[in-house]
Amino acid sequence: MAAEASRHPARRTGEDGDELIREFEATLRDALDEFEAFRRRFFGHLGAGTPRARAVALPARPPVDVEDRGSDYEVRVDLPGVPKEHIDVKIVGQSLLVTGEARGPAPAPARPYVLKERAAGRFRREIVFPDPVVGSQVQASFDNGVLTVRVPKVRPPVEHRVPIP
Q1: Going by C-beta distance under 8 Å and a sequence separation of 6 or more, which residues neighbour residue 149?
Q2: Which tens digits make up the pLDDT trace of 14-66?
Q3: Confidence at residue 106, expressed as pLDDT on a 0 to 100 scale
Q4: Residues 6+ away with beta carbon under 8 Å from 23
Q5: Domain 2-152 maps to which CATH number in 2.60.40.790, 3.40.50.720, 2.30.30.50, 3.50.30.30?
Q6: How far apart are CA 147 and CA 132, in angstroms?
Q7: Element (H, E) at 99
Q8: For 63-110, what is each residue's pLDDT tens digit?
Q9: What one-character DSSP code corresponds to residue 28?
Q10: 107, 44 in Cβ contact below 8 A?
Q11: CA 30 to CA 20: how far, in whole Å?
Q12: 112 within 8 A of 53, measured Cβ to Cβ
């Protein structure tokens, strides 16, 4: 019995353990989203005849760059063809969550595609920052298919000497 217990480490608890669990769950969700996009891309048309072109889904995890600029983070997300009205940006605790949907044109059965590469579908991206952030001061802009989000860090407390009269 003791050997059995040693093979299964106890679940970590507390803030560090809870953060580990949240990161694992987010990673698992992202992996499942990518697998579903892969499945739809390559097997979504099985049983529907032989299509001449396959629909391509927007990656469930669009490419992201996160730059630490000292007092803030700058996050750039590539979202080509997605109108800004279909993008949702939220700060949840110490994380930035970007979700939305790219909608493609309705299929025209009378005009089959020879090649179709433009993306459509739902996307979700979560970035967990290593430092606490100020959610109420986040600024976002969208230009030429690139979402830019500036997320200020919580400033460390400044030491101030208090005189005693």
Answers
A1: 74, 75, 76, 77, 89, 96, 98, 138, 139, 140
A2: 556 677 777 887 787 788 777 776 766 666 544 334 444 444 445 567 899 99
A3: 63
A4: 128
A5: 2.60.40.790
A6: 22
A7: strand 95-102
A8: 999 999 999 999 999 998 889 999 999 999 999 999 998 876 666 666
A9: H
A10: no
A11: 15
A12: yes
104-110 CB contacts, 8 Å cutoff, 24+ apart: 104/55
CA 23 to chain centre: 12
Read off the pTM: 0.57
Q: Take residue 6 and report the two structure tokens written for it.
A: 């040693």
Which segments of the chain does DSSP mark as H helices, in order?
2-7, 14-43
Bridge partners, residue 124, by sequence: 99
For the chain, percent helix, then strand, then coil, each to nearest 5?
A: 25, 30, 45
